[in-house]
Amino acid sequence: MKASFEACSRAKGGSIVGDGIAGLGDELGRENSFARVLAQVAPELLPWNTKADGPVAPLHLAHGTTILAVVHADGVVMAGDRRATMGNVIAQRDLEKVALADEFSAVAFAGTVGLATEMVRLFQRELEHYEKVEGQPLSLDGKARRLATLVQGNLAQAVQGLAVIPVFAGYDQSSGRGRIFSFDVTGGPYETADHYADGSGSPYARGALKKLWRPGLSLRDAVFVCVQALYDAADDDSATGGPDLTRRIFPTVSAVTAEGYRALPESEIREIAEAVVAARMQAPNGPVASLTG
Q1: Cα(208)–Cα(233) distance, rounded to whole angstroms?
Q2: What is the pLDDT of residues 106-164, one digit of tens each?
Q3: Which of 37, 109, 161, 257 could form a disulfide with 116 if both were Cys (CB 3.0 to 4.6 A apart)?
Q4: Domains: count for the chain
Q5: Do 90 and 178 belong to one domain?
Q6: In a domain, 150, yes or no
Q7: What is the distance between the alpha carbons of residues 261 and 2, in angstroms, rounded to a whole number?
Q8: 100 with 29, same domain?
Q9: 42 and 66 share a domain?
Q10: pLDDT grade, residue 1 (50/70/90)?
Q11: Is 289 a member of any domain?
Q12: Is the domain of 29 the same as that of 125?
């Protein structure tokens, strides 16, 4: 019978501290890496072990595009556009690329959508499994390193054009600040200060972030910065989707603070997106940075 992530992570008696996972030996039952457990009991469920019947043309697969993260006074904000492309075709207009990692962290992805969504699910289980086994959550650095291991596991797929590039961010309870980690196809993690963007529209988004970010941003201002950066990315990159007022499709935005992870409601994002679009009617190129500031 084919296993699932959920079945493989289900613990005996609701907790596996001291008991191990039902059906596994003592040593494997106390392994704190869910990916390593999966590699032993159901390796076919690992995203990078998926076998194709023949050659895969990357242009025939959906790809997610632009994601970004911004540090603000109370933590960090992550955002992503909603478009997925398949070559020159828009494959999906409402894809969500930002997800909960755990209570104090978030993960976003760019790249091959099918593999990326499975990697995000595996990462969520990895963090949940570690906390069950060890009785405490991983540090933010530890979470970033676990994600890097999963990205590295996908290297063989990446060199065939099926890359998954995440961005990871969270609130570091030990230092009381938001932090951002980037990755490449070989793994990582690489901590980045203040802001970061990845995906096909990232060169344009990074330019906007450099001009708009400043220390001590409020959460609301950080969300404005994210939406402005995604608008600029969509303006120059055909694979990135901007705010779609006609279809009422807006960027996905999540915040992580000392209170934990929160996905911003559509009503809040819509208000900001509509304000950005209205301002662009008067200034199509967006806010102008001071030459002396």
Answers
A1: 9
A2: 999 999 999 999 999 999 999 998 998 889 999 999 999 999 999 998 888 888 888 89
A3: 109
A4: 2
A5: yes
A6: yes
A7: 33
A8: no
A9: no
A10: very low
A11: no
A12: no
pTM: 0.83
65, 85, 112, 252: which one is catalytic?
A: 65
User: Is the domain of 120 the same as that of 229?
Assistant: yes
First to last CA, the chain: 64
**73 and 177 both lie in a single domain:** yes
Question: Do 124 and 233 belong to one domain?
Answer: yes
Q: What is the pLDDT of residues 158-187, one digit of tens each?
A: 888 888 999 999 999 999 999 999 999 999
Q: Is 24 exposed, middle or buried (0-12, 13-18, 19+ CB in 10 A)?
A: middle
Q: Are 46 and 121 in contact (CB under 8 A)?
A: no
Angle at which helix 113-134 crosses helix 34-41, to 10 degrees, equals 110
Determine the structural domain holding residue 28 and report its residue range: 11-49
Q: State whether 100 and 152 are in the same domain.
A: yes
Of all residues in the chain, the percent with pLDDT exceeding 90 is 68
The neighbouring-strand residues paired with 109 are: 166
Element (DSSP H or E) covering residue 134 = helix 113-134
Instruction: Check: CB of residue 243 under 8 Å from CB of residue 277.
Output: yes
CB neighbour burial string for 133-163, b if at least 16 within 10 angstroms, e if fewer: beeebbebeebbebbbbbbbbbeebbeeebb
Q: What is the CATH number of the domain that holds 223?
A: 3.60.20.10
Question: Is 117 a catalytic site residue?
Answer: no
Calculate the alpha carbon distances from 75 to 174, 218, 221 in Å: 13, 9, 13
Phi, psi of 112, rounded to the nearest 5 degrees? -65, 115
Question: Looking at the domain assignment, is residue 56 inside a domain?
Answer: no
Mean pLDDT of the chain: 86
The full length of the chain comes to 293
Token pair listed for 31: 């392994």
Q: Is residue 2 part of a domain?
A: no
